[in-house]
Amino acid sequence: MIPKRIGVFDSGVGGISVLGNLIDSKAFDEIIYYGDTARVPYGTRSKETIIQYSLEALDFFKQFKLDLLVVACNTISAHGLGAMQKATDYPIIGVIEPGVLALTNNLQNKNAKILVLGTKATIQSQLYQTLLKDQGYSCINGLATSLFVPLVEEGIFDGKILESVMEYYFKDYIEKPDAIILGCTHFPLISKAIANYFQNQFPKLEKSILIHSGIAIMEYLKTKYTLQTSKTHSKVTFYASDNLEKLKKTADLWLQTIK
Ligand code: DGL
């Protein structure tokens, strides 16, 4: 099967950072993006609620007869993906397994220090930590950095406020992580700031490897499917459970910012 019409699901706007990579691949005729903006954030909610919301999103996608659904949210990938896969007869792919695979492709040293950043729900699920251990990595730190989500939504991608929040979360890191998994699809928007923070703390050491869900999922899809690139851009349609105009504005801004 060559996926041509795909859906992208996120709790809100975060998945736009993944959408950028899907668009750039020119591998899909049609991309249908749905953000559950009425109920975002998911990252502070319980597993049960995340599963319930994820299954409700499947009802929304029913009308489109998708070839494939990409869950462009780490929180949903951590908690809702299994239930979603059981409930459908078409493939649904989350971002966590691709993220782990991208790391293994970029980091051979199994004793390397890996820092996983994500929402509370993602970090508490322990899914990244477990999959990384399964790959033989021994030095993994999961850190919930939920405050980054509203900052990014506010358009704060650098500056003093972000720096103090980074200081708050990272002050106990006396060793530089060899790799940082941006385990939330909001975080690629502040990836430069995060990389700079550690670079400034440890100027003599090599830069940390950063893992981005959008890049990871495209690499993963290429290994799973024979993707055909076309000369034309995908037709992208946005849907939201609340304030579609705001979602579209954010999409315009983010797709420019992460270029
Ligand atoms: N973008 C979501 C993720 O990748 C987090 C936002 C939320 O809490 O809903 O986990």
TrEMBL record:
- Which reaction equation describes what this protein catalyses? L-glutamate = D-glutamate
Primary enzyme class: isomerase
Keyword Cell wall biogenesis/degradation appears in the UniProt entry: yes
Which amino acids does the record list as binding substrate? 10-11, 42-43, 74-75, 185-186
Enzyme Commission (EC) number: 5.1.1.3
Gene3D superfamilies for the chain: 3.40.50.1860
State the protein's name: Glutamate racemase
